[in-house]
Amino acid sequence: MIPMRTSSIFKSRWMALIWAAGVIWFAYDATGSGSKDANTTTNSAQLTDATGAPVTKDQEKQLAKVLKGL
Question: Helix (H) and strand (E) counts for the chain?
């Protein structure tokens, strides 16, 4: 998983700083940098089915009923 032996990472301060920067960069990249406001607007959009038709409340209830039955 780590491209070098972990015992050699912390022998040098600079290597430790580079390693820590890589961990922080990975965490930032994995979680995304978008604002939370952008996510709320996309989540509140109208749901559609595979054909692109809007999903009704009755269809949502029917799906929930089927999923509970599994």
Answer: 4, 0
Cα 45 from chain centroid (whole Å): 19
Sign of CA dihedral 50, 56, 59, 60: positive
- Enter the DSSP assignment of 63: H
DSSP state of 12: S
User: Exposed, middle or buried, 9 (CB in 10 Å: 0-12/13-18/19+)?
Assistant: middle
CA distance linking residue 61 with residue 26, whole number of Å = 40
- What pLDDT score does 37 carry? 60
Helix (H, G, I), strand (E, B) or coil at 48: strand
5-17: per-residue pLDDT in tens? 667 767 888 888 9
